[in-house]
Structure formats: structure tokens, C-alpha cells
Amino acid sequence: MIVVQWSALGLGAAAGTLVSAFFFLGLAYGMRSALQGENTIATLAVSAVLRIAALLGIGWFVVTQAGPWAFAGYGIAFFVCRRIATTIARVPVQAGGAK
Question: What predicted TM-score, i.e. pTM, was given to this entire model?
């Protein structure tokens, strides 16, 4: 029988939620900056490199400090946050603003 380390799973989920929220906020900011700026490709590339490096670096730190159950929580939190972010992104924005 597999023994689940719930505290490690929760710690990983908490860290994953926080990092993923910043990841997707950074994605939104990077996209807006790229679409409004002149050097779109460079802006998107720098944004992607920074976000991915931070996500993987912190994920590596979580797994080395708290073990595989924390990493599982970290990964699950990322996919939950991804689902929330894509759902929010699909909501249409009204041209004149909400009244």
C-alpha cells in the first residue's frame, strides 16, 4: 500500500498555486506588452524564458526539499491554475466596458 504524505502534498500544492498564479499573470502581462510594443518576438521570448525558468527552478527546489509528494502537489496545482486561467481568458471582454 502506498502511504501518501499529505503534508508534503499540501505544501507542494500551496507552492504550486502561488508560482502558477505568478506564471499566468506573467503570461498575461507579457502578451499585453508584446502586442503593444515594437519588438514582439523578443518580448515573448524573454517572458517565456523567465517564466519557465522560475517555474522549473522552484519546482526543483520543492522536490529536493520536500520529496516526490510535494512535487505531485506542485504539478496538480499548476494544472488546476492552468484550467482556471484558460477559463478566465475565454470570457469575452465587452468593447465599451461593463456597465
Answer: 0.83
In the chain, where does DSSP find H-type helix? 6-36, 40-66, 68-90
Nearest CA to 16 among 58, 46, 66? 58
Cβ 73 vs Cβ 13: under 8 Å = yes
User: Using one digit for the tens of pLDDT, what is the confidence trace for 4-57?
Assistant: 899 999 999 999 999 999 999 999 999 999 989 888 999 999 999 999 999 999
Cα gap 95→17, rounded to integer Å:
31
Joined together, the cell numbers standing for residue 44 give: 515573448
Which helix (H) or strand (E) element contains residue 94? Answer: none
* CA angle (17 as vertex; 31, 88 as ends), nearest 5: 45
